[in-house]
Write a structure and sequence with these properties.
The complex is a heterodimer of chains A (638) and B (105).
Chain A: H1 7-22, H2 29-58, E1 60-61, E2 64-65, E3 68-77, E4 83-90, H3 92-115, H4 122-140, H5 145-163, H6 170-201, H7 206-209, H8 215-218, E5 224-225, E6 228-229, H9 230-245, H10 254-257, H11 263-272, H12 277-284, H13 286-291, H14 296-318, H15 322-342, H16 352-382, H17 398-411, H18 418-433, H19 435-460, H20 476-491, H21 497-500, H22 514-535, H23 541-549, H24 551-557, H25 562-608, H26 616-637
Antiparallel strand pairs in A: 1-2, 3-4, 5-6
Helix pairs in contact in A: 1-2, 1-4, 2-3, 2-4, 3-4, 3-11, 3-16, 3-20, 4-5, 5-6, 6-9, 9-12, 9-14, 11-15, 11-16, 14-15, 14-19, 15-16, 15-18, 15-19, 16-17, 16-18, 16-20, 17-19, 17-20, 18-19, 18-22, 19-22
Chain B: H1 7-27, H2 31-56, H3 62-92
The chains are: A mainly alpha (638), B mainly alpha (105).
């Protein structure tokens, strides 16, 4: 099977970006939107075709999914083994990601045609979306660590551009800078990890590194640092980069602020695709994470994921801006994926956690993108992000209401929705391998159901609110993506993921564990019922409970003061104690020396510039005097 | 050739003329006068050529030829200088040396 056409999955978005970017002023908004949608449709069709060919026709050889290269070129050779290539790697997870990215991106494009209508930067917006799609596609098909790093940064740049899309708003500019700087800081760890991996592992290539019998995995113990193998350190540092992109503790602070961007961006980048790049990275390097030092790095991943997931769920309970609730919910669900990867093993059915993580990535992309797009539809109608400005919208916006409900049920793990199946596998994986994490996961499942239905009832039921202009349902361009994603939020639960996406590529026959499912559903239903009691009609329970929990509520509402801690560390410690003396030294000593030399030259030249008087007779006099002196010297000295 | 006049007297004359010319060139404010002073300087060198030729190599004429060369060059130089001065006069309506002091710091 020739997969060389997959290069077009990368070429079409970048060509669209260049077209829309260069002719930004020439192309009418009505056309540019269609160009973006059309290009993405082609990309989506190519991705689906690739997935179909791979999973149903040619992927499995002798019972094992093989790795294909759609394109491969030798780029930079350092040594015989250490080289950087560019290429397109096709294996189960990269193809799964191609499908996710192209689907969500296409939906975001269609939706943006309605949502961004009349915006001044309409064409620019579509250009940036194409750039992002290109970067994300390049990230998922990367064949080696450096290629993934290059596209990783490109994704970061396009995220920066899109968060700061409303660049006239100071808060959007600040949020864009924050997102960029925080992820850049985490990427420093990623880069160091890559370099360590290249030096001690001997390769950047995924195929060579992840070969369980390969030298990188076999020789992990050859060098150590502070009690751990250097390879483990490299993996932990690479996970630091992943944690930055995926908003895990303690690098999560940029994600809630990133909600300043337009809502389709939040749905595409900050819910479905870019933020799962960290999960994807760990999954990509999974054999290394698992085999090196008995999976110590994976243990770190599991706990960071579990703690982030609980932490974010608690904060999400208290937030009042609906997009921020969804942002923390995203963080919490990505924590789920991380912990599922963290508890996974390699062989056969033991690879359940890995499979569950990838499956949850897929289903989460669908229902979380749907939640964001539906929230965008609500914001579009009400012109506010805050829960207090909403209520009773179900009569005005029936499609948004139904689709939001489906997504909320799916994320809460309601039976027979997609989230139910993927979450069940995660819980099962956690239960089999790590009991404390299992209980955290279960608690988070309950919290998730509660805060999601707090949103749902708060927006669509709740208080009877009088609106200045009656809100109305969004146009078709916005509701069609909602309906499609609502369909996917249920249907993606019925895909046979356990046969496609396992760490050893063999696949196993997955089945529902009824005990696990019953417990999870009970916990989820309790959450939903409490939310129903609290928020279906306006009650004073929430106020009472938040008053009773006192400090805890205040802490959670202020996101456990993480932002303040960061500001304290950067401003009071780094800026004042470290940077300020350096700046003083630079200004006074380094600059002072150079400026002194300059100033002295100037004053000296001022003093002697009178010599250049322009008077011919002065020059002649000097000349004659000089000759006279020379003559005297010649006569009397020699 | 000229009886009873020694080389010392002739060289003294040319030296005096030279310093008069130098003094004139350094102190006059009028460009024409300065040009005249330059002619004086050239003439002293012409006298020196002729005199030294006469007293050192009485049978040869190189010094005399050189003096003719110098006179010819001086004539050309004067023509050039006068044309410059005339142009300057058209520009500034003055032939004062102070008017030419524009090329300075």
């Amino acid at each position: 099977m020739d997969f060389s056409y997959t290069i077009f999955i990368l070429i079409i978005p970048i060509a669209t970006f260049l077209l829309l970017g260069f002719f930004y002023n020439k192309i009418k908004p009505a056309i540019s939107g269609w160009i973006g949608v059309f290009a993405l449709s082609v990309v989506a069709v190519l991705s689906y075709y690739t997935a179909y060919q791979y999973f149903f026709n040619v992927g499995k050889v002798e019972g094992k999914f093989q790795t294909f290269f759609g394109f491969k070129t030798n780029w930079m050779n350092f040594t015989e083994t250490l080289r950087i290539d560019m290429g397109i790697l096709l294996d189960p997870i990269s193809i799964m990601m191609l499908v996710v990215v192209s689907t969500i991106s296409l939906m975001a494009h269609i939706y943006s045609r309605g949502y961004m209508k009349g915006d001044r930067g309409y064409t620019k917006f579509f250009a940036f979306l194409s750039l992002f799609t290109f970067a994300m596609m390049g990230l998922v098909v990367a064949t080696n660590l450096f290629q993934i790093y290059i596209f990783w940064e490109l994704v970061g740049v396009s995220s920066y551009l899109l968060i700061g899309f409303y660049y006239e708003k100071p808060s959007a500019v600040a949020a864009a800078k924050k997102a960029f700087i925080v992820t850049r800081f985490a990427d420093l760890g990623f880069l160091i990890g890559i370099l360590l991996m290249g030096y001690y592992g001997g390769s950047y290539d995924f195929m060579e590194l992840n070969n369980p019998e390969g030298p990188a995995i076999m020789n992990w113990a050859s060098s150590s640092f502070m009690g751990l193998s250097v390879i483990t350190w490299a993996l932990i540092l690479m996970f630091m980069g992943g944690a930055g992109k995926s908003a895990m503790l303690p690098f999560h602070i940029w994600l809630p602020d990133a909600m300043e961007g337009p809502t389709p961006v939040s749905a595409l980048i900050h819910a479905a695709t870019m933020v799962v790049a960290g999960v994807y990275l760990v999954a990509r390097m999974f054999p290394m994470f698992h085999f090196v030092e008995d999976g110590f790095a994976l243990y770190v991943v599991a706990w960071v994921g579990a703690i982030s997931s609980l932490f974010a769920a608690i904060i999400a309970l208290t937030q009042k801006d609906i997009k921020r609730v969804l942002a923390f919910s995203t963080m919490s669900q990505i924590g789920y994926m991380m912990l599922a990867l963290g508890v996974s093993k390699y062989e056969g059915h033991e690879g359940l956690g890995y499979m569950a993580s990838m499956w949850h990535l897929f289903t989460h992309a669908m229902f979380k993108a749907l939640l964001f797009l539906a929230a965008g539809s609500v914001i579009h109608a009400v012109h506010s992000n805050y829960l207090k400005d909403m209520g009773g919208l179900r009569k005005y916006m029936p499609i948004t209401n139904i689709t939001f409900l489906i997504a909320a049920l799916s994320i809460s793990g309601f039976p027979f929705t997609a989230g139910f199946f993927s979450k069940d596998e995660i819980l099962l994986a956690a239960f089999e391998h790590n009991k404390p994490i299992y209980f955290i996961t279960l608690l988070v499942a309950g919290l998730t159901a509660f805060y999601m239905f707090r949103l749902y009832f708060g927006i669509f039921w709740g208080k009877k609110k009088e609106y200045e202009h009656a809100p109305h349902e969004s146009p078709w361009s916005m509701t069609i993506p909602l309906l499609f994603l609502a369909f996917m939020s249920i249907a993606s639960g019925y895909l046979p993921f356990s046969e496609w996406l396992t760490p050893d590529r063999v696949g196993f026959h997955g089945h529902l564990n009824y005990t696990m499912a019953a417990i999870a559903v009970t916990v989820g239903l309790i959450g939903i019922i409490i939310a129903w009691l609290f928020y279906k009609n306006p009650t004073n329970y929430p106020a009472k409970i938040s008053a009773a929990s006192g400090k805890l509520y205040k802490w959670a509402f202020n996101k456990f003061y993480f932002d303040e801690v960061y500001i304290f560390i950067t401003h009071n410690i780094i800026f004042k104690r470290i940077s300020a003396p350096f700046a003083w030294f630079d200004k006074k000593v380094v600059d002072g020396t150079m400026e002194g030399i300059g100033n002295k030259t100037v004053s000296l030249s001022k003093a002697i510039k009178g010599v250049q008087s322009g008077k011919v007779q002065d020059y002649a006099f000097a000349f004659a005097g000089g000759v006279f002196v020379l003559v005297l010297i010649v006569i009397y000295m020699i | 050739m000229i009886e009873n006049i020694s080389i010392y007297e002739l060289l003294t004359l040319s030296t005096i003329l030279f310093f008069i010319g130098l003094y004139g060139f350094l102190t006059r404010k009028n460009l024409i006068t300065m040009l005249m002073a330059i002619e004086l300087l050239l003439n002293t060198s012409v006298i020196n050529f002729v005199v030294i030729n006469k007293y050192l190599y009485p049978n040869m004429l190189q010094g005399v030829y050189f003096s003719i060369f110098i006179i010819a060059v001086a004539a050309a130089e004067t023509a050039l200088a006068i044309s410059i001065i005339i142009n300057l006069y058209r520009l500034k309506t003055s032939v004062d040396i102070a008017e030419t002091e524009t090329m300075k710091y």
